[in-house]
Write a structure and sequence with these properties.
It comes from Maribacter algicola. There is one protein chain. This protein is of the alpha/beta class. The chain has one domain: Oxidized Rhodanese, domain 1, CATH 3.40.250. Helices cover 40% and strands 15% of the residues. It has a 5-stranded parallel beta sheet. Strands 6-7 form a two-stranded antiparallel ribbon. The protein has a two-stranded parallel ribbon with strand order 8-9. Strand 4, helix 4 and strand 5 form a beta-alpha-beta unit. The protein is globular, with a radius of gyration of 18 Å. The N and C termini lie far apart (51 Å).
Length: 170
């Protein structure tokens, strides 16, 4: 096949792929600007170092957490969040904490509650577990085994999850 024909076929395809990725990112950016107050500083997925000095808190519902979560994350829930339990789980108020949910909305709510409890180093994972997975981050099932499955919350928000296997369940 000639170089011109190949270019004619491949460049539009590459343009569409790039356009879709840019649209998805804009959609995430717009959604977070609309729904969040940015009261809890963001940490970008590519800047999150997975080590023992950071406590990861999962602010999704238990069924979502049980599909997959970030390695060593502690489930705190959203509607089930218990401030008293948090004070026992993380006694040091200056402990670095990163909270996440599906895209970063519910985790901002939990981050605010942590700040109200006096925690001073709380960050919200930008784009949540969806963006973590979209950037090739690894997620784990309850047995500690890496998985491609991610609970997609609902069909609308699930559009923001571009990589992995979308799981929809109650």
């Amino acid at each position: 096949m000639s170089q011109k024909i190949l270019s004619f076929l491949i460049y539009p395809f590459l343009f569409l792929l790039q356009s879709n990725a840019m649209r998805a990112q804009r959609s995430l950016d717009n959604t977070l600007k609309l729904l969040n107050k940015q009261s809890v500083p963001y940490i970008q997925p590519e800047n999150l170092e997975m080590n023992d000095s950071i406590v990861l808190l999962d602010a999704r519902e238990l069924g979502e957490f049980e599909v997959s979560h970030l390695k060593n994350a502690i489930w705190v829930g959203n509607s089930d969040f218990d401030p008293a339990n948090m004070l026992q789980t993380i006694p040091k108020k200056d402990q670095p904490i990163v909270v996440y949910c599906s895209i970063g909305v519910r985790s901002e709510d939990i981050g605010e509650k942590l700040q109200e409890l006096g925690y001073t180093d709380v960050k919200n994972l930008y784009g949540g577990i969806f963006e973590w997975k979209n950037q090739n981050g690894t997620v784990y099932n309850p047995k500690g085994v890496a998985t491609d499955s991610v609970h997609a919350y609902n069909r609308l928000w699930g559009r923001l999850l571009k990589k992995g296997v979308k799981v929809y369940q109650p």
